[in-house]
Prior knowledge:
The protein has helices spanning 11-29, 53-56, 61-64, 69-72, 78-84, 126-129, 131-155, 169-184, 198-207, 226-234, 252-255, 271-283, 309-314, 320-326, 343-358, 367-375, 381-395, 403-407, 430-448, 453-460, 464-477; strands spanning 32-37, 42-45, 88-95, 98-108, 114-123, 188-191, 216-220, 260-264, 285-286, 295-296, 300-305, 329-332, 364-365, 400-401. By secondary structure, the chain is an alpha/beta fold. Strand 9 and strand 10 (295-296) form a beta hairpin. The structure holds adenosine-5'-triphosphate and magnesium ion.
Amino acid sequence: MTAPAGLPLESDAIVKLAARSMFELFSNLAQGMMLVDRAGRVVWINEAYKKFLPALGFDRVEDFVGRPVEEVVPNTLMRHVIESGKPILVDLLSNKAGTFVVSRIPLRDEAGEVIGALGMVLFDHPETTLQPLIAKFATLQRDLDEARKALAQQRRTKYTLASFIGSSPAVLEVKRQARRAAQSGATVLLLGETGTGKELLAHAIHAGSARAERPFISVNLAAVPETLLESEFFGVAPGAYTGAERKGRDGKFRLADGGTLFLDEIGDMPLALQAKLLRALQEQEFEPLGSNKVIKVDVRVIAATSRDLRKLVAEERFREDLYYRLNVLPIRLPALRERIADLEALAENLLESIAIRTGMPQRELAPSALAALAAYRWPGNVRELRNVLEQAAMLTDNQRLSEADFAAILPGPPTAPVEDDSAPQSLRPLPQLIAEIERNSIESALAATRGNKASAAKLLGISRATLYERLATLKRLSA
Ligand SMILES: Nc1ncnc2c1ncn2[C@@H]1O[C@H](COP(=O)(O)OP(=O)(O)OP(=O)(O)O)[C@@H](O)[C@H]1O
Ligand SMILES: [Mg+2]
């Protein structure tokens, strides 16, 4: 066998020669080279590398060589290359010395063990040599920063404790507890009837906490269909499903990382998911659907419910361990009828926001109107008050709303005996009557099924989705 001219015969020698040639080529081409050992210490730099030392803050080679590489080269990934055993062939490295195009290659011994790594600066001043690429990179980076900022802004809460109106002793106590909760970072459980301001308070606690600049993410457990809840919480790994979910999706736990996760209507959580939630809360980690990779997060949970959780526990429809895990800092929001002293301030505030939204002058309440409102039970609490005021403002142009302006709106027994038989009190606008019948039927069905929405929907002969949709509408109209 004849070898090609000038090349040695055995393959070992060829490889060695090739390696040496490559090394020489690169060391001539590169703007600088360094070697680090298995422990990540710089063991050698070439002549050309020395020109970077002043910008990195070193006068003498002896002060640089021998030190752990990340101490002398900020943002370097050399240690990562040693640990992973994988090269990073082209990368941009930015630090106080500038931006560089670099290449990092692991070095292995005969047995294949990583014994260190070789780092090369391929281009210094890439901003001139690689202008188009760098410009594109900078634009993308800027767009990304802006998108992140906009998202964070959007997720930031709109409400602070000051927007929780009221100065009755019950409210002052709630605010005191909320302030403490904001400082503590512990799990908070907000209890109270519908419309008492649980969601508002959750926002305020987040806004007053150390996490205020991070996301506030809500999940309404009553509004998400049971089959979707798990993926909603924990996300889906890429490739776990075909179709729209093919790329995977982050769950709310992930989105809330560093911030607050608001679990609204926690009493409606299906039992099967409660165990998973408990684990996520305790360990601050979870696995997305279709993945066995554990994701670690740092999430503060605020849960809310208008249902009697202790009763649900007794009925074995809510896990006792989860209840105790959530019940660290319970805050009970008083019903409006328990703090009727706040009615005037609340009405004033709500009338102002109605005026701003409708662009109409702000209305006032006559003392007779205030008295009528104060006598009412307010099962829908502040939300109901808001709706009643809105309706009254729509029905009349009076600047000052009187008792008469509310007579047709406030539900309940007729306030005055009917004098003229030709207009029975029960004769009211049809849409109002229909809405009332609907609400009453839904309420009875929910009561009969002890809040179980699936069974209630069955009783009413409508789908679960329709029930949720009707509930949402009624909640909006609630009056
Ligand atoms: N103290 C308050 N000050 C001002 N507005 C309030 C107050 N409490 C509630 N509201 C307003 O009443 C409405 C209902 O409040 P929110 O949605 O927070 O109630 P909730 O307790 O979460 O009710 P649900 O249990 O039905 O979800 C909102 O428009 C909210 O801004
Ligand atoms: Mg709510």
